[in-house]
Write the structure tokens for this entry.
Amino acid sequence: MFSLIYLSTLNDSMSDQELTDLMRKCKENNKLLNITGMLLYKDNHFLQLLEGDKQIVLNLYNEIAHDPRHSHVAVLQMNDTEHRYFSDWSMGFYNLNNEDDLNQLTHFSDQKIEFSEFRHDAPKAYQLLKQFSLTQATE
């Protein structure tokens, strides 16, 4: 098992409907590829953990990195893992601009979350994503 965490900036804002459509497509594709993970969205930034077969995850990341909708794409962490943290979700999703989704956090609930900070603090990004493995994400 292999996991990869990346951060990216969207070149254009996405409406709630566009995010919903994107998630639907990601879930369908991920099921076919046996990829699981978590996607967080906030202020035109994505923070995502992908897990599955190493080559499939790296290929998917390469597609994302070259997608013209994304810029400033950066791998924060990648490693072999013993198990999946998001085995129940082809792609869990939280929109942290939405207060209901933001309230799912416990450790981070009293802090302002700025995804840009994660570029220099991958363990904090991993901790945030992993916290969602304990909650019920939108599937």
User: Anything to note?
Assistant: The domain at 2-132 is CATH 3.30.70.100 (Alpha-Beta Plaits). The mean pLDDT is 84.
